[in-house]
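Subject: Sanity check before I submit

Could someone independently write out the structure tokens for this chain? I want to compare against mine line by line before I put it in a report. The sequence has 246 residues.
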Amino acid sequence: MIKKGILVLALIFIAFSSHAQTINDFVNRGLEENDISQRLPQLDTLITIAKHNSPRLKFFDSDYEYWDGQIDLAKKAWLNNINLDAGYNYGIFDNLSNQQIAGDPGSQTLFSTEQSRYVVGASIKLPLSSVFNRGREIKNAKAEADKSKYQKEFAEWELEQLIVRQYNDLIKAHRLFFISNSIVESYKVQSVRADKDFANGVINVTEYTRLQQMLNQSISSFEAQRSEFLIALKSLEGTVGIKIEF
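---
Independent answer below. Compare away.
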């Protein structure tokens, strides 16, 4: 009797192991056939697209361009202290006589002529502040430009890390989504058999209820995992800035 009991237990164990192995093989084959990473764009491609579409990186580009322009303005600020004036007048003007021009003090005669007059003048002033602060203003502008450049480099690194994480989260969510679906399908098959067994009196209401609860729980888990998959997909699309087709 003992040997017979051991034999029965061994057969049950073998059958259970075979059943579990069959399920594992099914899931593994399904995951291989439905490997989303084979249909997604390459990770490097997604990173490149994300950098091109990133509003944050565009902001740093504009900020760097602004401060790079401020460097040129600071270098040429001394030109603000140079003034060049020109004027033109046309009309009748009183002029000195030739004697007066020659220095004859006895000549008091002025004569009027119709003529054009041009006036050109230049002036320069150099406040001490513009002299001593020029170098500091140029250095400040360069420092701000460098800061924008380094901020962009750091933002690019952060963006790369985020995309790698979201990419892997999407693949993981899809795998769990597929596994959840496989579990639901397995419990649906069991549920059909449970309906027949319960109708034929093979199982009681307690066992039948337990199997139905397991099916409902697997469906609930499947829906939760489907939601996680969609969230992971939309998160990656939002970061990259395109709709991902697969």
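---
OP: Matches mine. For the report I'm noting this point. Residues 128-199 form the longest helix (72 residues).
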